[in-house]
């Protein structure tokens, strides 16, 4: 099956492992990811103010490009996925907002853009594994199971909330990452802070606050016996690695998947 | 004059956020779950109450509008569906939109960089703090 793919700016720079392994694993699992031509940065955070138009245009452009290609849209980064999915919901539910946005959709040098009203189906890569490939198929494709590895799933905020829009999983008792960990042969470790904030962009505004939040997550995961954490978010990984006062390793879920599928260099 | 300014701003904030503060039952759960609670002078439930009563001025002059992490925990966990984060976002926009009122600009970034900082952090912070 073919999907339009939105990598996002960080996956082209500081988080290449997230992107490269996502593509390689998709190939092995029979999924074709077709990168959207000339995509623009999603902006990293969804602005919940309904009168903010300009900052949401890039997400709408990606969504309408996928619509024009007749394909669902998939991303791997939690933040891109959150921005794109929340923007899509706003385009569906808020006619006033959608009308404003559609005035600005056409870009210089390109033909008149077809107005967009939230038609595209939006997936996170994990949902692709769960709902399109199926975790049983992922498990069947595993060559090097991560047997004996105690892995803590770090959801953070963006994959789950607001759950009415994201609709990936139960926001307070999620399972998708634990099921993923089981599929690749690891042992999931449940800990209370797995869906609490790492500090996010606060690392630039108030580093001490980001350090406090990341450390709390890491300490809670290690106390519960995790050997490592998996994440889908470059900013979570940064905060946990750089601001957290605890050496628990943090890796991207796509790296572990590639390792399990036997395609990691 | 001052009264008109506050009334207009209140209307704009309610409209932009889509929040109805009258739904709030003042249980404080939003503030109880807020990861930035300790760093805030005014807390999420106070934002809701102060906007409801039109006591907006103190919020516009408080660092609290910059402390929200956009984690959506208060949105998720409010038993009344009030969505306080959306109100805080609308207030933050009202504070940073006037000419020259940006809280952070690209000129601030180089001093904050390190080799591992993801681009995502920079674009997110600028989107929050600069209009
Ligand atoms: S959680 Fe909701 S109802 Fe309770 S104080 Fe906060 S906004 Fe009001
Ligand atoms: S979204 Fe902002 S106000 Fe709400 S809980 Fe998170 S940090 Fe606190």
Written account of the structure:
- The complex is a heterodimer of chains A (265) and B (131).
- By secondary structure, chain A is an alpha/beta fold.
- Chain A has two domains: 2-124, Glutathione S-transferase Yfyf (Class Pi), Chain A, domain 2, CATH 1.20.1050.140; 137-261, Rossmann fold, CATH 3.40.50.
- Chain A is built from twelve helices and eight strands.
- In chain A, the strands form two sheets. A four-stranded parallel β-sheet of chain A has the order 2-1-3-4, sandwiched between helices.
- In chain A, helix 11 (234-243) links the parallel strand 7 (228-231) and strand 8 (250-252).
- In chain A, helix 1 runs parallel beside helix 12, helix 2 (57-69) packs across helix 3 and helix 10 (207-223) packs across helix 11 (234-243).
- Chain A is globular, with a radius of gyration of 18 Å.
- The mean pLDDT of chain A is 95.
- Chain B is an all-alpha fold and 131 residues long.
- Chain B has two domains: 3-97, Fumarate Reductase Iron-sulfur Protein, Chain B, domain 2, CATH 1.10.1060.10; 102-131.
- Chain B has seven helices and no strands.
- In chain B, helix 3 crosses helix 6.
- Chain B starts with a helix and ends with a helix.
- The mean pLDDT of chain B is 93.
- Classes of the chains: A alpha/beta (265), B mainly alpha (131).
- At the A-B interface, helix 9 and helix 11 of A face helix 1, helix 5, helix 6 and helix 7 of B.
- The structure holds iron/sulfur cluster (2 copies).
For this entry, give a set of tags.
heterodimer; A: 265 residues; alpha/beta; Glutathione S-transferase Yfyf (Class Pi), Chain A, domain 2; Rossmann fold; 2 domains; four-stranded parallel beta sheet; 12 helices; 8 strands; B: 131 residues; mainly alpha; Fumarate Reductase Iron-sulfur Protein, Chain B, domain 2; 7 helices; 48% helix; binds iron/sulfur cluster
């Amino acid at each position: 099956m073919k999907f339009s793919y939105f990598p996002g700016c960080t996956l082209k720079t500081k988080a290449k492992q997230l992107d490269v392994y996502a593509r390689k694993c998709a190939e092995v699992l029979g999924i074709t990811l077709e990168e959207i031509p000339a995509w623009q940065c999603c902006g990293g955070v969804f602005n919940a103010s309904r009168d903010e138009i300009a900052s949401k245009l890039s997400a709408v452009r990606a969504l309408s490009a996928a619509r024009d290609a007749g394909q669902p849209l998939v991303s791997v980064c939690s933040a891109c996925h959150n921005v794109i999915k929340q923007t899509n919901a706003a385009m569906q539910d808020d006619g006033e907002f959608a009308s404003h946005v559609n005035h600005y959709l056409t870009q210089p040098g390109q033909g008149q853009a077809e107005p967009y009203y939230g038609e595209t189906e939006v997936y996170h890569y994990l949902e692709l594994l769960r709902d399109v490939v199926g975790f049983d198929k992922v498990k069947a494709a595993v060559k090097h199971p991560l047997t004996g590895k105690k892995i803590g799933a770090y959801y953070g905020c963006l994959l789950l909330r607001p759950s009415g829009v994201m609709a990936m999983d139960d926001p307070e008792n999620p399972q998708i990452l634990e099921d993923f960990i089981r599929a690749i042969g690891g042992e999931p470790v449940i800990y209370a802070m797995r869906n609490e904030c790492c500090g996010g962009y606060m690392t630039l505004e108030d580093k001490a606050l980001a350090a406090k939040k990341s450390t709390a997550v890491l300490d809670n995961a290690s106390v519960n016996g995790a050997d490592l954490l998996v994440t889908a978010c470059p900013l979570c990984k940064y905060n946990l690695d750089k601001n957290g006062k605890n050496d628990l390793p943090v890796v991207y879920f796509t790296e572990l998947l590639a390792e399990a599928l036997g395609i990691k260099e | 004059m001052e009264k008109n300014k506050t009334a207009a701003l209140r209307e704009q904030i309610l409209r932009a956020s889509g929040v109805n503060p009258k739904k709030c039952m003042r249980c404080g759960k939003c503030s109880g779950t807020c990861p930035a609670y300790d760093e805030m002078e005014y807390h999420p439930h106070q934002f809701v109450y102060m906007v409801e009563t039109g006591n907006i001025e103190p919020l516009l002059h408080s660092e609290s509008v910059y402390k929200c992490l956009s984690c959506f925990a208060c949105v998720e966990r409010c038993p009344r569906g009030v969505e306080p984060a959306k109100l805080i976002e609308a207030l933050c926009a009202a504070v940073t939109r006037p000419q020259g009122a940006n809280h952070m600009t690209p000129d601030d970034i180089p001093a904050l960089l390190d080799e591992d900082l993801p681009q995502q952090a920079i674009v997110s912070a600028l989107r929050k703090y600069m209009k």
